[in-house]
Design brief:
Layout (H helix, E strand, L loop, with lengths): L1 H18 L16 H5 L7 H19 L4 H20 L17 H24 L5 H26 L1
């Protein structure tokens, strides 16, 4: 039953991203990527190969609907690659016994650090690959900062609400 609930959550988040958050733009600076909550909340018990495949598939779906060429897929695969090492450095062994990653299952500070690192990494990769150059570094850094902050507010807000 939990698998069905997780699939429904994934579909709802993807639809929200496509219908709402992809259309939310403030002078081209803010592009929130709330679909990352699906990658951040994946169970700790999944094998690394499945994590990478799920990240690749979710990134591919977002590339198809965003009409981008592998940008989201590259960012999602990098996030999934970095996920385990970051969790290993932030989460104590006793906390790793849980099956899902959320603010309710690990320490709040550890989850916030984990989420912020991966959200900013994802947004940096998406912004750098979409800009594909360093002609406007200031604009790109501002876009990374604002988009990642807005994404983090939505993702952390959802986790606070879920508790």
């Amino acid at each position: 039953m939990k698998v069905v609930r997780d699939i429904i959550f994934l579909v709802v988040v993807i639809l929200l991203q496509i219908l709402l958050f992809n259309n939310l733009s403030c002078y081209g600076l803010c592009h929130p990527q709330v679909y990352l909550i699906c990658l951040l909340a994946m169970p700790l018990t999944l094998r690394r190969e499945w994590e990478m495949l799920i990240g690749c598939a979710l990134g591919l779906v977002m590339d198809i609907v965003s009409n981008s060429v592998g940008i989201h897929m590259a960012a999602c695969v990098l996030v999934m690659f970095l996920r385990q090492p970051i969790l290993n450095s932030l989460v104590q062994n006793s906390e790793r016994l849980t099956s899902a990653v959320s603010m309710a299952t690990i320490r709040e500070v550890a989850y916030i650090q984990y989420a912020l690192i991966l959200i900013f990494t994802h947004q940096a990769v998406v912004s750098m690959l979409s800009t594909f150059g360093f002609a406007h570094v200031g604009w790109m850094l501002l876009q990374i900062l604002i988009s990642a902050t807005v994404s983090a507010v939505f993702i952390l807000g959802y986790n606070l609400f879920q508790r």
